[in-house]
């Protein structure tokens, strides 16, 4: 059985954006999470933290956007030139990660390769030669108060990215609170995965079929409102 | 204690020998000592162990791989998933020509801070249950398990700031702080490139990001533009 | 995340109950939240465990001893050799009415930083072979022995800064920083008294000493002059 | 036998001042060490560190010295109002003690109650009720590159403050490099105390008599030049 297509990457980002409330401090990982800001209202009231030392990150700047020179000292963690929000501040990396590890970042939105039913996250690869890139993901995954993973539900060859146990090397243990995929919104609770919402036109049975771990059905299971 | 002023990045590397262990400041492009890296390349120093946040496609540090000057790296971000973005470092790693120790970014910052601040290590939850924890000691404190991560120090730190006064006080700007302030504390010799060297007193005492006590050599040099990603 | 502004120090203590564990910023007089301490005195909260650099002759914190509000202290400097400079805290300590945990000043700062930054403890040589080490674990790292000191956190931190913006960003001045920035990270509720509350954007992002994420309550209140020693 | 009087406190401070060279970063403890600056030339080229968060501490200010209002945010670690030297900087306590523990302060001049032949220092008291004051002394004693202790050679009742082993609670183990007393300058080396200089009019035998541990005589033992 082939899994249904479900949401586009942009719609996954939109659904993640709905999880964010004014007053929250949010760190967005590289990849799909960077699409989230374009789905927020202008008065979102969030403070974005960038682990390279900015609280109050603004929008990513495109070159030659008519707003003056790009500032080489004002980059986000992905190396892109950015703007600052009003009330922003700068700090060094030791302070930035004290902020992250100490639970002062409310929500981290991370990409994922695999999420396990106990909340384990795998979102980096270790190559045979030892190569890899961790960046700030391990600190964010284990330090943020709430971890939302935004990812495709299945791999290109149809294997589930939601499993009983991760088969890839972990980023952090038992850290994930919510998974938003192209098919569903799934909470990770003490007992395992709980299916909260299905994408429009997708059934709970289809989500279960695309998931290699049991899904409990939330009492208020519903279709996503997008 | 008073910093020595050098005229060129090449002069500022005086005395650096093969086998040196070097911290390089910067996070992607911001705050990277690009002039000093280029000078290290020109100098031809070999057997360098680098300690830096990132080495990969687009990073100046990869230039040290061109003639095999780099022996290994301790860093947080070394390879990209995309084959199109493989770097010379990637290739040399695959061939076993360089070593790599990967460490989570927050742990990396804190290990350097420990090395510079006389602490015996870092107790963190980051990396527990992951390949990063393999072979390392865990310690239980008040019922929580932490990974013991060892301090990092270097022979030389090469960092970048916006301004230095002639005493060696440094002023940073924006996101170009990153690892520069901690690295300035954790090496036997600290070499700084700055946009501008100013008279003592010109930097507001409230705005000094690295006090002069940490700085050995300063050198004024226009920044080399770093390509954005 | 956005800080709440209170009109008076008394209002700013809303919800604080007996048995509370409170960090107080300041080093001798500089940066001490004197208005908040006086408000805590007026409030009559009892069973307070204080965490502060110093309590002794001339310190506002001693006022909390007047009616026995203080249950104990964790601090670095508690008593003076001179009998003429004995404080109410000294007297109550001698009578066993309050507890005292003494910790070296650098360890004190670092324990608070660990508590605020999610680290499991501090590995330091300070205090080894002294009464401070009694009953504590030592850990060997690379052949050196270190004392394991546990993180410090509190229910409430009361701190002082020069300016706050309405979001809660804090700007410090001079030697009034001291323990305030680390304490702002290590308590469930952070209450700040400032000389001035300004609009968001009025504090240069380069000059923010405590980012808004750490601050819960701010209150503008003229400083109470502290006698010099 | 009564020990000779030897140097005044001011002369002890003067002798300590001779140990300081331009370019050094120096922290002065409370008590006798605070007398040192008045014995330095105006162009001393030192940077004074104050553990409460200042590098580049200037002179202590007396009230009403005609130079404007005293600044309540500009105190030294003893709580006294001070001036700033040119090139000064401020930092928080965590940074200040990273500087101290990491060996970035060259010389700490501390007061002492007892110094042992192995370099152990006792300079604080613990009372029966647990009262006491440590302040920054333990970090300074174990962190500074060089520790100079300035103290009286003997107690009021004639007991030696230089001993085989300290009887008071320690401040730090094996940390002292040099002791300057009213009677002598004594180095602490691997083998124990080495008598380097005697105060004017004081003999090596008198110093030994006032010292409860063996003194080796330095090859160039001489009278202090004050």
Topology:
The complex is a heterotetramer, with two copies of chain A (226 residues) and two copies of chain B (229 residues).
Chain A: H1 9-17, E1 25-28, E2 47-50, E3 54-60, E4 82-90, H2 93-101, E5 107-111, E6 114-116, E7 121-122, H3 137-143, E8 146-150, E9 162-163, E10 178-180, E11 184-189, E12 192-198, H4 204-209, E13 215-223
Parallel strand pairs in A: 1-2, 1-5, 5-8, 6-9, 8-10, 12-13
Antiparallel strand pairs in A: 2-3, 3-4, 6-7, 10-11, 11-12
Chain B: E1 4-6, H1 9-12, E2 21-24, H2 34-43, E3 48-51, E4 70-75, H3 88-94, E5 99-102, H4 105-116, E6 122-124, E7 138-141, E8 144-149, E9 154-165, E10 170-171, H5 180-183, E11 187-198, E12 217-220
Parallel strand pairs in B: 1-12, 2-3, 2-9, 3-4, 4-5, 9-11, 11-12
Antiparallel strand pairs in B: 6-8, 7-8, 9-10
The DSSP helix count of chain A reads 4
Within CATH, the superfamily of chain B carries the name Glutaconate Coenzyme A-transferase
Which whole number gives the mean pLDDT of chain B? 95
Structural class, judged by helices and strands of chain A? alpha/beta
- Listing every helix as H and every strand as E from the N terminus to the C terminus, the arrangement of chain B reads EHEHEEHEHEEEEEHEE
Widest sheet: strand ordering of chain A: 4-3-2-1-5-8-10-11-12-13
CATH architecture of chain A: 3-Layer(aba) Sandwich
- CATH homologous superfamily name of chain A? Glutaconate Coenzyme A-transferase
Helix share bin of chain A: 10-25%
According to DSSP, the number of beta strands of chain A is 13
Oligomer: heterotetramer
Q: According to CATH, what is the topology of chain B?
A: Glutaconate Coenzyme A-transferase
Strand content of chain A: 25-35%
N-to-C terminal Cα separation of chain B, in Å?
39 Å
């Amino acid at each position: 059985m082939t899994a249904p297509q479900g949401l586009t990457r942009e719609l996954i980002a939109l659904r993640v954006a709905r999880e964010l409330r004014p007053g929250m401090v949010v760190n967005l990982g590289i990849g799909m999470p960077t699409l989230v800001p374009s789905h927020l209202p202008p008065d979102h009231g969030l403070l974005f933290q960038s682990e390279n030392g900015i609280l109050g990150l603004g929008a990513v700047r495109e070159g030659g956007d008519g707003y003056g020179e790009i500032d080489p000292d004002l980059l986000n963690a992905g190396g892109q030139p950015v703007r600052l929000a009003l009330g922003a501040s700068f700090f060094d990396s030791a302070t930035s990660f004290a902020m992250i590890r100490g639970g002062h970042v409310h929500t981290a939105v991370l990409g994922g390769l695999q999420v396990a039913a106990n909340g384990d996250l795998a979102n980096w690869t270790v190559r045979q030669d030892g190569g890899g890139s961790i960046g700030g993901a391990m600190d964010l995954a284990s330090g943020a108060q709430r971890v939302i993973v935004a990812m495709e539900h299945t791999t290109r060859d149809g294997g589930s990215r939601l499993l009983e146990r991760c088969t890839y090397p972990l980023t952090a243990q038992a850290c994930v609170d919510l998974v938003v995929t192209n098919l569903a919104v799934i909470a990770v609770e003490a007992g395992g995965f709980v299916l909260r919402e299905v994408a429009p036109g997708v059934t709970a049975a289809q989500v279960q079929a695309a998931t290699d771990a049991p899904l409990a059905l939330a009492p208020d299971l519903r279709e996503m409102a997008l | 204690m008073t910093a020595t002023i050098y005229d060129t990045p090449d002069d500022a590397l005086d005395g650096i020998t093969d086998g040196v262990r070097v911290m390089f400041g910067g996070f992607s492009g911001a705050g990277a000592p690009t002039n000093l890296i280029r000078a290290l390349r020109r100098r031809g120093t070999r057997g360098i162990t680098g300690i830096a946040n990132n080495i990969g496609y687009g990073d100046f540090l990869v230039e040290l791989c061109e003639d095999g000057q780099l022996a290994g790296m301790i860093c947080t971000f070394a390879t990209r998933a995309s084959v199109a973005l493989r770097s010379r470092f990637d290739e040399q790693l695959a061939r076993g020509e360089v070593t790599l120790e990967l460490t989570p970014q927050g742990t990396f910052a804190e290990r350097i801070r420990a090395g510079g601040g006389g602490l015996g290590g870092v107790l963190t939850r980051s990396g527990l249950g992951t390949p990063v924890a393999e072979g390392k000691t865990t310690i239980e404190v008040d019922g929580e398990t932490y990974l013991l991560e060892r301090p990092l120090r270097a022979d030389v730190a090469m960092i970048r700031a916006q301004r230095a006064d002639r005493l060696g006080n440094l002023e940073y700007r924006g996101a170009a702080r990153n690892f520069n302030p901690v690295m300035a504390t954790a090496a036997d010799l600290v070499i700084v490139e700055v946009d501008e060297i100013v008279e003592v007193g010109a930097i507001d005492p409230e705005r000094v990001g690295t006090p002069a006590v940490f700085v050995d050599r300063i050198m004024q040099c226009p920044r080399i533009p770093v390509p954005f990603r």
